Amino acid sequence: MIKEEENIEKESKAKSKSPIIEIKDLHKTFGQDNHVLKGVNLTVNKGEDLVILGRSGSGKSVTIKCIVGLIEPDKGEIKVFDQNVLHLPKNELNEVRVKIGFLFQSGALYDSMSVRENLVFTLRKHKRELSSEEVETEVLEALDNVGLSDAIDKMPSELSGGMRKRIGLARTLILKPEIILYDEPTTGLDTITSREISELILDIKHKRKTTSIIITHDMACAKLTADRIMVLKEGVIQAEGTYEELEKSEDEWVRSFFE
């Protein structure tokens, strides 16, 4: 009996460490000679928060946009849930996309819609079978998850930058994604609000058991949220490790992020 329990525990640990995202030899060039990605390789394990660091233009955002098909790479392989998303038929790709939440830098809310309407629009687009009562329940739950239930009838123009990010995150969460891709989640926010967003990312991970890639310049955000960090330089992964490991890197360029 004890041996059976040990085997179950080992299997559970193995599954938790199995890659949910695998990227191999990813290349992307814009125009004639703007080679942004030059062979990116990375894996993200189930339940892990991976932070990607890099200077502006190093290809961080391009990498995650390739994952959801917003940008088509020139070469490489992207596996999500063990499926090569670059070769999936459109209907199967859409099924994968619904399981992936994407938080844009701006929050990307529809300015002409109230907070409620923004969330309802997203939900109705993907889950048409829900009743009006079920939709309302989902909207309230998503807003409660980001601590903004009282903003339900506000317009985006009435919200602060931090509130817009939270509502954008609520709109992402409403589809209950297994993976969340965060593109500069704390950019343009003050120190206190940035920490609140970083803590919210952690809270969502623990509550929802999500897997995430977080693109950031914010080292406080990276330190708080990262299980592992990868550093992109000139289109390839230059270094990989925990915050503490990279902070002590022998590579002066890598160490410069942590100073």
Describe it.
The protein has 259 residues and is α/β, with parallel strands linked by helices. The chain has a domain at 19-99 and 214-259: P-loop containing nucleotide triphosphate hydrolases (Rossmann fold), CATH 3.40.50.300. Helices cover 41% and strands 25% of the residues. It contains ten helices and ten strands. It has helices at residues 2-16, 60-67, 90-98, 115-126, 132-145, 161-173, 191-208, 219-225, 243-247, 252-255, and strands at 19-30, 34-45, 49-54, 75-80, 83-84, 100-103, 179-183, 211-215, 228-233, 236-241. A six-stranded mixed β-sheet has the order 6-7-8-3-9-10, sandwiched between helices. A four-stranded antiparallel β-sheet has the order 2-1-4-5, with helices on one face. Helix 4 packs across helix 5 (132-145), helix 5 packs across helix 6 and helix 7 (191-208) packs parallel to helix 8. The protein is globular, with a radius of gyration of 19 Å. The termini are far apart. The relative contact order is 0.15. Mean pLDDT is 88; it is low at 8-16.
